[in-house]
Structure formats: structure tokens, C-alpha cells
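Quick check before the chapter quiz. The format below is the same one you will see on the exam, so make sure you can read both the input and the output lines.
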Amino acid sequence: MMMRYGSLAVFLLLVVVAAAFGGSFEAGTWYYTMYKPSWTPPTWAFGPAWAVLYVLMALAIWNVWLTRDHRRLGALAWWLLQLLLNAAWSWLFFGIHRSGWALLEMTLLIGTVILCIKAFSTVSRAASWLMVPYLLWLLYAWALNFAIWSMNGGGLNRLTSLFGSS
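Here is the expected output.
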């Protein structure tokens, strides 16, 4: 019994560490003065949304872990990689103010989460479904990141300036 819930505690601790790292980079003046689309959620909504998503992520990997299926180690590797990429996005976007790099990194994160869900589905269908809200949120966050990047000097206008205008 202790072993069963001990593993849940480890997975919850891992998501708390990732959340704490990501949360250590505050939005600050840089973010608040940027142009943002009208469909940007209010700042207060991000904390509760991420709290729910992190708990679902921990429950998903715990569900995989409890199966004792030999494929769970591969699934765990995908989960750990996506958790690392998740934390890295905050550093890129809020820490060093590189919204374009954060966009590219989030594209990699989304691909990794898709592979994680695929790996989970071979071990536990329930676990794969627990990751779907996270994937949907990331797709929304990718669109938001793209819009912010584009509205603040990134995007096609930046690419065309590289080649000059005729």
C-alpha cells in the first residue's frame, strides 16, 4: 500500500518541481505591456488551469506506473521529457523573453505529448485520456504564443524583412 501511494507522491513531487520552476519566471512588465489577442485568458486563470493539468499529468503517469507493464519505462521517458520541455517553455518565454523560441519549443513539446499519449495508450487507455486536456491546453497555448509573437514583431513581417522588400 505504501509503495502504491509512494509512487503517486513521487509523481506529484515531480510536477510540483516543474510548476515551481516555471512559476519562478514571473510575467512582469514585459508581458503585461505586450500586445495580446482579445481571447487571452485573464492572468488569474492560468494558475488554476495549470494546477488541474499538473494533477492530471501526475495521475496519468501513476496509472501507467501501476500497470507494471514492461512498456511503462518507455512511457515514463516520454512523460519526463515532456515535463522538462514544459518547464523550459516558461524560462524561454518569461525568463529570457524569447517568444519565438518559446513557440518553437512548444511545438516540440506538443509533439512529445502526442508521443507520450501514444505510449500511454499501449499501457493504459485511461492514462492516455488523462493527458488529453493537457494536449488541448497546449494547442490553445501554442496559438496564444503564436499570436503574441506575431503581434509583437515576430511572424511573417519579420521573415519578409530578412529578404528585403521590393
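If your answer matched, good. The mean pLDDT is 91.
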